[in-house]
């Protein structure tokens, strides 16, 4: 089973240069998973979601997903927020890099953080712990999942930067992107005015 491409590649690429804060403001503060943080200082990214629902602490489904995921997609894993076992480590990150995965978003824990930073794949997760995963299942691929309290469907646009993750549904992507550019222009005008302010006498 593979995910279905539902968004425009141009739209998806367009979001890569938009801060997640601006995306969130442009969606009335919706679509912003809570509790997931960048595990190292990676570059911003944007890509379509390939979703995995897995039993807490079990990464069999992640390995199956990496056999199907397409270059440029984002692996989004609903691990139930379980923090007692890492769902990925450096070996999974190496496999993800080989598959040209844009990023990994894990609602759970990871390990091998320094090695993952050297590998260079953006990873967002809830926690870090040395304990490794089970590989027993069950799991589901390409199904609606929840990460950080936000529902993510296969093909949703996932954007990540230093502030966290934003999720955009493809039917609203063009509207949201246009609103983002309007907000960026307005913020730049405000920033220019603030730079000209002088202290009170």
UniProtKB/TrEMBL annotation:
Transmembrane segments: none annotated. Pfam families: RraA-like. One of its GO terms (molecular function) is methyltransferase activity. InterPro entries: RraA/RraA-like (IPR005493), RraA/RraA-like_sf (IPR036704). It is an enzyme of class 4 (lyase). SUPFAM superfamilies: RraA-like. It catalyses: 4-hydroxy-4-methyl-2-oxoglutarate = 2 pyruvate; oxaloacetate + H(+) = pyruvate + CO2. Its cofactor is a divalent metal cation. One of its GO terms (biological process) is methylation. Keywords: Methyltransferase, Transferase. Signal peptide: none annotated. Its EC number is 4.1.1.112, 4.1.3.17. It comes from the Bacteria. Belongs to the class II aldolase/RraA-like family. Homotrimer. PANTHER family: 4-HYDROXY-4-METHYL-2-OXOGLUTARATE ALDOLASE 3-RELATED. This is Putative 4-hydroxy-4-methyl-2-oxoglutarate aldolase.
């Amino acid at each position: 089973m593979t995910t279905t491409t539902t968004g425009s590649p141009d739209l998806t690429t367009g979001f890569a240069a938009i801060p997640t804060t601006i995306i969130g403001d442009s969606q009335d503060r919706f679509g912003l998973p809570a509790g997931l943080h960048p595990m190292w200082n990676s570059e911003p990214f944007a890509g379509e979601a390939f979703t995995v629902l897995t039993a807490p602490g079990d990464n069999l489904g992640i390995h199956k997903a990496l056999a199907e995921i397409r270059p440029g997609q984002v692996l989004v894993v609903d691990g139930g927020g379980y923090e007692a076992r890492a769902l990925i480590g450096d070996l999974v990150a190496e496999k993800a890099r080989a598959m040209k995965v844009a990023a990994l978003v894990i609602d759970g824990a990871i390990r091998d953080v320094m090695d993952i930073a050297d590998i260079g794949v953006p990873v967002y997760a809830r926690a870090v712990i040395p304990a490794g995963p089970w590989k027993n299942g069950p799991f589901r691929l390409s199904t609606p999942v929840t990460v950080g309290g936000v529902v993510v469907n296969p093909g949703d646009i996932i954007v990540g930067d230093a502030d966290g993750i934003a999720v955009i549904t493809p039917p609203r992507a063009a509207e949201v992107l246009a609103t983002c550019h309007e907000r960026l222009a307005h913020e730049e005008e405000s920033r220019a005015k603030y730079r000209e302010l002088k202290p009170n006498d």
